[in-house]
From TrEMBL:
The keyword Manganese does not apply. This is Carotenoid biosynthesis protein. Keywords: Membrane, Transmembrane, Transmembrane helix. Pfam families: Caroten_synth. The chain crosses the membrane at residues 42-64, 76-93, 113-136, 148-166, 198-216, 223-242, 248-268. InterPro entries: CruF-like (IPR007354).
Length: 277
């Protein structure tokens, strides 16, 4: 199971890299594939299939990791809480503008739930939140003290929300002339994004991380290895950073580095239990 988790983590990273290639090379430079059927087919795949596929692979990677490191019961409980609650929030958001603000998904991420939210989106909430929680739990445990579960939930929510500091601006940047993953129907002060989107992220993440963890009904849990969740987390943050930098939004990349990656990396200092070595 450990090998499967690592394999899907690598495939997840490759899919995101291929999608990044499509966004930054294939679309802006159509002359590279004009008149070449093989190149055209490759670029079309990179553009049209890797976005949603990358999210599916990320979810499979974290499911495999969770099954190996924390057990299937805990993992599937967290998966159910994350996907159901996030899908509900996204469906509500695309219908009413609450809690994230007024926005609408484009067709780039594939088939949609009720025609509004791509099926892959709740999966991305799951794998990034699960990775964030595991990393947070390692950090909190290493520091010692009381209320481990509470602080792990809060810090995990912060790591998830900090990712959005670079994710949302990069995925819907007006500077990205060629494609947007979603579009905003209202303007906000944070690179065009309304600030209530961050509040919505924190609230949604806090709700399903708390439900997913507390439903385990355990006071303490094992401290699993963190290399795989850190790899998944870092891949996604760096991917968004590259996209933001390409759009000229350096401040969001710096914010992600300082408020997202740097805190998450503290988890790597936690001792790995021998049972999982």
């Amino acid at each position: 199971m450990k090998t499967s988790a690592w394999s899907f983590t690598v495939l997840h990273g490759l899919a995101l890299c291929l999608g990044l290639f499509g966004l930054l090379v294939a679309i802006p430079h159509p002359e590279l594939w004009a008149g070449q059927p093989a190149a055209m087919a490759f670029f079309a795949f990179a553009l049209g299939k890797t976005g949603g596929t990358g999210m599916v692979l990320g979810a499979i990677a974290m499911l495999a990791y969770g099954g190996w490191a924390l057990g299937w019961r805990r993992t599937l409980i967290f998966f159910a809480a994350a996907t159901i609650i996030s899908a509900t929030a996204e469906l509500t958001g695309t219908k009413t503008g609450w809690p994230f603000g007024g926005y609408e998904y484009t067709e780039f991420l594939g088939a949609k739930l009720l025609g509004r939210v791509p099926f892959a989106i709740p999966l991305s909430w799951f794998y990034m939140a699960f990775a964030s929680f595991v990393l947070a739990d390692a950090i909190v445990t290493a520091r010692g003290g009381t209320n481990r579960t509470l602080w792990s939930i809060v810090l995990g929510t912060w790591l998830l929300t900090a990712w959005d500091l670079v994710l949302d601006p990069s995925m819907a940047a007006p500077q990205m002339q060629y494609i947007h993953f979603w579009v905003w129907h209202e303007h906000g002060p944070y690179f065009g994004m309304p600030l209530r989107n961050l509040a919505g992220w924190f609230g949604t993440g806090l709700l399903f991380i708390a439900v997913g963890r507390l439903a385990w009904n355990e006071r303490t849990t094992p401290l699993p290895p963190v290399a795989i969740p850190f790899a998944v987390y870092a891949i996604n943050v760096v991917w968004s950073m590259i996209l933001s930098i390409s759009a000229g939004m350096w401040p969001t990349a710096i914010a992600a580095l300082l408020l997202s990656l740097a805190p998450a990396a503290l988890a790597l200092r936690a001792r790995t239990p021998r049972a999982f070595a």
